[in-house]
Amino acid sequence: MGFSRNRGISQARGSYIAFCDADDTWKKNKLYSQLKFMFKNDLEISYTNYFIINEKSKIIGKFKSLKKLNYKDLLKSCDIGLSTVILKKKFFYNNKFSKLKTKEDYLLWLKIAKKIKFIYGLNQYLSSWRENKNSLSSSTIQKLLDAYRLYRLHLNYSFIFSILFTLRLALYAIIKKIKIFR
Question: Which domains does the chain have, with CATH numbers?
Answer without folding.
Answer: 2-132 (3.90.550.10)
